[in-house]
Design a protein that fits this description.
The protein has 853 residues and is an alpha+beta fold. The chain is built from 16 helices and 46 strands. The protein is globular and about 100 Å long. Bound molecules: beta-D-galactopyranose.
Amino acid sequence: MGSRGVMRGALGANVPSSTAAAAAVAVAFVCLWWCSAVSASVSYDSRALIVNGQRRILISGSIHYPRSTPEMWPDLIQKAKDGGLDVIQTYVFWNGHEPSPGKYYFEERYDLVRFIKLVQQAGLYVHLRIGPYVCAEWNFGGFPVWLKYIPGINFRTDNGPFKAQMQRFTTKIVNMMKAERLFESQGGPIILSQIENEYGPEEWEIGAPGRAYTKWAAQMAVGLKTGVPWVMCKQDDAPDPVINTCNGFYCDYFSPNKAYKPKMWTEAWTGWYTEFGGAVPVRPAEDMAFSVARFIQKGGSFINYYMYHGGTNFGRTAGGPFIATSYDYDAPLDEYGLLNQPKWGHLKDLHRAIKLCEPALVSGDPGVMPLGNYQEAHVFKSKSGACAAFLANYNPRSYAKVSFANMHYDLPPWSISILPDCKNTVYNTARVGSQSAQMKMSPVVGGFSWQSYNEETASYDDSTFTTVGLLEQINVTRDVSDYLWYTTDVKIDPSEGFLKNGHYPVLTVMSAGHTLNVFINGQLSGTAYGSLENPKLTFSSAVNLRAGINTISLLSVAVGLPNVGPHFETWNAGVLGPVSLSGLNEGRRDLSWQKWSYKVGLQGEGLSLNTLSGTSSVEWAEVSLAAQRQPLTWYKTTFNAPAGNGPLALDMGAMGKGQVWINGQSIGRHWPAYTAKGNCNDCNYAGTYTEKKCLKYCGLPSQRWYHVPQSWLKPTGNLLVVFEELGGSSNWISFVKKEIESVCADIYEWQPNLLSWEKQASGKANRPLRPKAHLSCAPGQKISSIKFASFGTPEGACGSFREGSCHAHKSYDAFEKNCIGQNSCSVAVAPEVFGGDPCPNVMKKLSVEAICS
Ligand code: GAL
């Protein structure tokens, strides 16, 4: 709501600002009783959501509250508002709120009410996706693991025990929101809710019980009488009055299931998640903007960026399995809450352009006219005379010159121009006016002195139990730990041939996932792991057995529980067998059905070695610089907080796999040893985007840096604990800060320009203004040098610009003069600024890169 049309009333109710503003002032004195008697409302029609009597074009963004800290929330929300958002969308994370049945938790990162109230204070709306199934690459899709063990339960279908639990939790959340008066119908910020999540594809697989469940879920939700509409995403048969909505990289093709429902896009994917072993996906800002403009021009009225801030899967909250700890998502706000430029700025400009069109957009359906083979105009006209046009070029390869209403327009490939007055282009999705930034990870503190403690291989304690055969992992651990030891003894007769000929027997272990470390008589013999695509694994390797009794210890490690797929709750993990030894005198010996001992979790977990009080329970050894890389090792050190309050990360590049804690708070799983597969070719914004199209970090760790929230640090004496499974080198662990290295602008001479249009429209400028290159370092930084500047036909991208055949010889001058020593500066993109036109009749642009320090 940040922008136009509605303002927050004295009692938190929303009052239309335009015509009703005067009336609102007039009743201000009687407002105390009047405002609370009138209930604000949200409804919808075919065109849009209607908030307090006004159709709204709403821009929303997902920020999942547990993926950042409460200390970060106000800044994230403010940056979302500055980026032109009206709405913040979040899921509700059931397993975070009800860790054991009936025991609720709404503190710290799970303080849902506090989060919503912060959004309200910022003057934004909320879209609350209660689910309670959420998917979201979140452990078990948001379901508490105990839910699986309710007798007779079957998730997400027409199943009594499941429906009872789902209804109970949904009602709990709705009542909590009502008690805090958070629905818009009560004067609060929540304008929309969601029940279930992308159930359509599941229903299709399940058939009749799925359809019955959909009906039940809709009725149950509507029966909770929130006073605001419900949506079901990816659910073509969403029953009235629930609105079915679209999720995807593009949604312009989508229509709701009834003509009287608005066209809404609940997940516009801004990038994609990272999996351990995968490369990191990025989505170009130009294509993101193109997809949104395309949706709006086809009559869409609600867009939610999934994610606007992705954040971090702290602790063991990542799902998958194999979802990385970073949930950056290439979102407009990066994992650390910094602006991801140019995406944040380019979308901000898009939102302003769309808002300028809002009066025309909300007043009717678009007229569409072809402008060429791949070109179209979408025109919106209101009765009161407002006119807005979107000119689209769908051709991914070539520019188009089109004429529209007797004027000529140049449309870059795969782009849409926005004309809020049906005349002047103020924005084109492929012309990025905002700056881009190169970020760097600068070391701030390192060289810690470490102490270590070696985890025992399958220690025995009270919790150890023995049984015949192999057990499924989650049934045993109930997910209280990633770790489960499977231990058995193998007797080797002194007459075994391999003891003489040295051809050791081969141990083969079949596991349902997710990773496996094999120890023979306490020595690591090898590891194996699956992937998101196929979590299963087979370990097969010769093992060093001796005559007599040998202990085989298998440490099976879960890397997040599945969050999506038909009945994902039934998917197995752990060593289900067979487990066998081959190459013995007898041939193959099956170990699957002998006695196995089980121990849940690590010894160090049981002793809470990750906490200050727990560390004193064992003897730690000094780690020398030449230390051997031991598997299954706990490391600890203390450190003082690095200076400054910018975002911090741990550089875990030299480590293998495990978990990290700071002052007892879990930073998450680290796994830099899993390097990224994939093809990181150049990425062209034009053409249909998929999550495989634009990748980075191929051949490098999928995740090297791990976010450490500032608020988890004390000035001095912080405890850092690392558990390392494979054997990394703790001596190389250091803190880095993420900061801007350089900023760039890349702007065409005649680029559409919002600012100049607004100046002209308001009569403040009497001639067309040239676009400007704006450069701005982070607060506290200054521009120290101009690394590159060229007005002409420069090539390349930020970080790797190079001169083209045409280059104005005074390209650097204006920047040297106006920018050096400044935090930010602007330079007009016009020939006279750079010493004259270097190549008349050629389309020119300016590319500039400035170093921030
Ligand atoms: C959607 C789902 C989201 C998230 C997304 C991928 O299908 O609704 O929760 O999982 O995919 O990031």
